[in-house]
Amino acid sequence: MVSSTSSGPLRRADVDYLVRNAMISGYQLFSLLTPPIYLAILYARHPSFSVNRLLRATWIGGLVGAAGAGSIAYLRHIKSSEDFVRVKRMEAAYNTDRVRRNDHATIGSVLLSVLTPALLWKRASTLNLILGGAGLGSAIGVAAHYARSFSGSPPPKVTPVIQVIGNSQT
Q: Which of 21, 50, 108, 170 has a CB 3.0–4.6 Å from the CB of 137, allowing a cystine?
């Protein structure tokens, strides 16, 4: 009998895919949540605003979100059965909502990682401008995706035919 934590190449690829998706979602979520939380904490303590600190908080928040979500997904899926992992991977691959959210976030990241340094060159360090701009762009892209979905333009649903072939031996 094959154990639930066997590590064949297909299972490892499925786990890698699911962890990568979780890391992307964690980055997007924390990039969306970090700027308002940072600004709320900043103005509660002392109202001295700095673009450099906001951009740094945004990209560090995204990094923390990616690392945390990836770790949780890895620990969850490495202990799951091979069939469960395969089904989850297929569901994730055909999830058009996630695909469109990732597309919007990627477009926003690329645009703002280029535009932020061009607009705010003297106000922050180059690293914070590029990475923080990408984080803000990702947040804007995710917000645009959800605004588009809630306004009546949800992505089309795709229903895959998932066949799970059991590998249990009798």
A: 108
Least Cα distance to 139 among 44, 46, 38, 70 occurs for: 38
pTM metric for this prediction: 0.83
Write the CB contacts of 162 (distance below 8 Å, at least 6 apart in sequence): 87, 90, 91
Residue type, 9: P
pLDDT tens by residue, 40-54: 999 898 878 899 999
Amino acid in the structure at residue 41 = I
Closest by CA position to 136, among listed 68, 51, 70 = 51
Q: Do the Cβ atoms of 70 and 23 come closer than 8 Å? A: yes
Selection from 132, 113, 135, 134 nearest residue 124 by Cα: 132
